[in-house]
Specification:
It contains 6 helices and no strands. By secondary structure, the protein is mainly alpha-helical.
Length: 126
């Protein structure tokens, strides 16, 4: 019963997201809006319901199944991938490098901010 209750909550938030995306004509997919709303609710509450914990653990346990359609798509479009391998490869390399650099930059900002906060809290021994 916990799984059914949890999956119902996920589907309700997905529905809310879909309705908002259609009514407000947002370019963001409805499920993404729904998950952002669910995240906001969980942050506001400070905890997650046991039913959501149960369903999320179950879904994460089978996450690898979501890669099956991507693999099938790769096989379906294999000739096109072979023809455009250079553009695809360069895009993947550039995107990976930019992501790594951005992550390092954000991490450095976070560490500097944390260091400034910790030095501001220490009393001076003068």
């Amino acid at each position: 019963m916990h799984f059914l209750h949890g999956i119902t909550w996920l589907l309700v938030f997905q529905l809310i997201g879909e309705v908002l995306a259609i009514l407000l004509k947002w370019p963001i997919p409805g499920p993404v809006i729904g998950m952002m709303l669910l995240f906001a609710l969980l942050v506001w509450r400070g905890r997650s319901a046991e039913s959501l914990d149960t369903v999320s653990s179950g879904l994460l346990g089978h996450l690898s199944l979501l890669f099956v359609p991507a693999g099938v798509g790769m096989m379906l479009y294999f000739p096109r991938i072979v023809n455009e391998w250079l553009a695809i490869g360069l895009t993947l390399v550039v995107a990976t490098v930019v992501t790594m650099m951005t992550t390092a930059w954000v991490m450095q900002l976070a560490l500097n901010r944390r260091e400034r906060k910790s030095t501001a809290r220490k009393p001076s021994n003068d």
